[in-house]
Design brief:
By secondary structure, this protein is α+β, with helices and mostly antiparallel strands. The protein folds into three domains: 5-226, Ribonuclease Z/Hydroxyacylglutathione hydrolase-like (Metallo-beta-lactamase, Chain A); 234-289; 303-373. Helix content is 24%, strand content 31%. The chain has nine helices and 21 strands. The structure holds zinc ion (ZN). Residues 94, 96, 159, 178 line the site of zinc ion (ZN).
Length: 377
């Protein structure tokens, strides 16, 4: 059980021991034992991978797969091959529905949900999460003791602005969420290429060559794969940037040999026809391009959008003009360039297309308010 939850200034380094990995398949979800009481469940077909920490009187999960009875049942069946104890905690690596979709199910059974504090910017009207994503919010590095293990939670921003990297030093395992995968990618997200590369460097700083790395999707892997994933991510971005300068369309980019090499790496070893469909690859190229495409429309007077806008939850959204570009910043959180799609709606550069700042304009076109909307995908 959780004995204490507190913020710590530094990471406790523990000597890790050699661990035998044994995998057994049950009820369609493959269960891999990573240490005496830490397991990884392969979520293929059910949503995300799931980490399980087993104590004498309860379980702690890292992610909870997709919503839906079929997924909950399969997950419960896999958990029951490990322990008959109740799920006491669910930690979300981020709020996407294939990771947090089981939140409500486990909350109804009495579990406490732990997520990164930026999930508070996801609209409460989203029926994907209800009230279950914010029972405990990690704003800073937080440690939990469960089953005698120290579990470090690191709030980050890369795949989403609400990422949590979960590290269990004594079991020598890191859970990366969707910042890393063995069967798809690349995943340049909320903080662009720079943020993604920094995140992968951070994951590597927590690991040795013997460490287990559990990605959001795909097989349990290791530091060498994270390094290769980083190199291919960098190459992918640079290749697309060069081809874009040459005037190539996403469809024309598909034929590039360097890109093809990275696509093969990201697809991994398994059967991944879905990822390899040309339309899916093109969508991934388009998403990468959205990070450096010019503004959707030009607004001459951006200065009057500047201001401090207090959000419903009391946090401050600051909109500021820097070098004739508009930026949004939130308390203790992120900063992103605002790209106007019309005179009211500005998207966050390089972020998902549903993430916007919405300005309220008076009949005389004065800006009277601004709200940040971050939709989980
Ligand atoms: Zn995701």
């Amino acid at each position: 059980m959780i004995n204490r939850i507190k913020k710590v200034a530094c990471l406790l380094l523990l000597v890790t021991s050699f661990i035998t990995v044994a995998t057994q398949s049950s009820h369609q979800i493959a269960v891999t034992q990573l240490s005496k009481n830490v397991y990884a469940l392969n979520g293929q077909g059910f949503g995300s991978n799931v980490g399980v920490v087993v104590d004498d009187d309860g379980l702690l999960l890292i992610d909870a797969m997709s919503p839906g009875e079929k997924n909950h049942k399969a997950l419960m069946a896999a958990l029951r091959t490990i322990s008959d104890k109740p799920v006491k905690f669910v930690i979300n690596t981020h709020a996407h529905r294939d990771h947090a979709g089981g939140n409500q199910f486990f909350a109804d059974l009495g579990a406490t949900i732990i997520a990164q504090s930026h999930v508070r910017y996801i609209p409460k009207t989203s029926n994907r999460y209800k009230a279950t994503y914010n029972q405990i919010l990690a704003a800073d590095h937080m440690t939990i003791t469960f089953a005698g293990l120290t579990i470090d939670l690191y709030p980050k921003m890369s795949h989403t602005h609400h990422d949590l990297i979960v590290h269990i030093p004594a079991a020598d395992v890191v859970f990366t969420g969707d910042n890393h995968a063995t069967d798809w990618g690349p995943n340049i997200g909320a903080t662009g290429l720079k943020g993604q590369l920094a995140l992968l460097d951070f994951v590597m700083s927590l690991t040795t060559n013997a460490s287990h790395v559990v990605p959001g999707h795909g097989e349990v892997t290791n530091k060498a794969h994270v390094l290769a994933y980083k190199q291919h991510t960098k190459k992918w971005y640079q290749t697309i940037a060069n081809l874009y300068k040459q005037g190539k369309t996403p469809a024309q980019m598909l034929d590039n040999a360097d890109l093809q090499q990275s696509i093969a790496f990201f697809a991994g070893e398994g059967d991944n026809e879905g990822y390899l469909k040309p339309e899916n690859i093109q969508r991934r190229i388009q998403r990468t391009l959205s990070g450096f495409l010019p503004n959707a429309i030009v607004i001459d007077d951006l200065a009057h959008y500047q201001g401090l806008y207090i959000q419903q939850d009391g946090t401050n959204l600051i909109v500021k003009l820097i070098n004739n570009k508009l930026f949004a910043k939130v308390d203790g959180g992120f900063m992103a360039q605002l790209i106007p799609t019309n005179e009211r709606t500005f998207r966050l550069r390089g972020w998902g297309e549903n993430e916007v700042v919405e300005f309220t304009l008076s009949p005389t076109k004065q800006v009277t308010n601004a709200t940040l909307h971050i939709e989980a995908i």
